[in-house]
Amino acid sequence: MNIKSLLLGSAAALAAVSGAHAADAVVAAEPEPLEYVRICDAYGAGYFFIPGTETCLKIGGKVRTEGQWYDAYNPQHTTGTLWHTRAELNVNTATDTEYGPLKTETIIRWDWNDGNSTSTNLLWAYISLGGFTVGKTDSQFNQFTGYAGDVINDDVVYDGPYELNQITYNYDAGNGFTAVVSLEDSNSGPGATGVNGEDSHNHYAPDAVVGVGYKAGNFGFKVVGGYDSIVEEGAIKARVDADFGAFSAFLMGGWNTDGDKLNKYAGSNGGGDAADIGWGDWAVWGGVGVPINEKLKWNLQLAYTDSKIFAATTNVKWNPVKNLLIEPEVSYTNWDSINEDQWAGILRFERSF
């Protein structure tokens, strides 16, 4: 065999082996195309599309720690200093539908209290569509009117119930006129215990809230009424807001349909000997907020009731950097009917995101 024949034979053998291996080769799959997170700006800052869906998601929350000296709500409170830390997670979703945005809001709180006591609270969890809201959130007796002043101890004089289940319809005409109608769970919130000793077990009738409001320029007016179906009494609140640029102010008054009784909408936040002292026939709140510069604001709130509760709170809200709040606050409460008073203070640090 000559050299030429040897080379040709070797080449043929190599070609045969290569062909066999080529037939068995594994072809790599094409990589899936990357789907980057898309910003969803239709519902405000912070929303993004959940990949593969048309649902927008927003995640936020806060971390707070604060020291508290005495208790503005309780004249018998004697503990000098309490330290409280909270973490809060907010999850919001929104999807466009033929009836408008379908939204949910969920707020979960974790609290670490002085003395190694911990708690978890599903604060809010509700669905909204086309003006309707169903689920757990604060009573419209508070939400619709905008609560009270921009202070921590804003409800030493009780201004209404908070977390409860409800079915609510909010109407916004787009010209400054707004309205609300709400059926609220009589078995959640403070009225569920029967604030005057009423038996709330097997109670089937809901509580009810209705309200109207109008805003024109720098002024706004709202009035809201709540009916406690267990006590069979209720309350009405009216509020005026004004923004003068250099400062803002509000004045709010409440009337209890039976001043001799507490009800869910005209109750008491007092502790100790003040626990059963409500408004009497009426209550009034007022306050001012003065922005000193873009990082500093001073607030003051005063409140007084027919039952002779006087509450005063002032604070300074300082934002040294964006999303960081440092808030010192001082409160004074006097319960004239039991000849008791209380000074209290809070120093709060809060980082929101």
Mean pLDDT: 90
Major sheet summary line:
16 strands, antiparallel, barrel
Q: How far do the termini sit from each other?
A: 84 Å
Q: So what's the overall shape?
A: globular
Helix/strand-derived category reads mainly beta
Low-confidence stretches: none
In helices, the fraction of residues equals under 10%
Number of helices: 2
Q: Strand-residue fraction?
A: over 45%
CATH homolog superfamily: Porin
CATH fold category name? Porin
Rg, alpha carbons: 30 Å
Summarize the structure.
The chain is mainly beta and 353 residues long.
Protein model, in words:
With 353 residues, the chain is mainly beta. The protein has one domain (39-352): Porin (Beta Barrel). It is 7% helix and 51% strand. The protein is built from two helices and 17 strands. The chain has a 16-stranded antiparallel barrel with strand order 2-3-4-5-6-7-8-9-10-11-12-13-14-15-16-17. β14 (296-305) and β15 (309-318) form a beta hairpin. The protein is globular. The termini are far apart. 27% of the residues are buried. The mean pLDDT is 90.
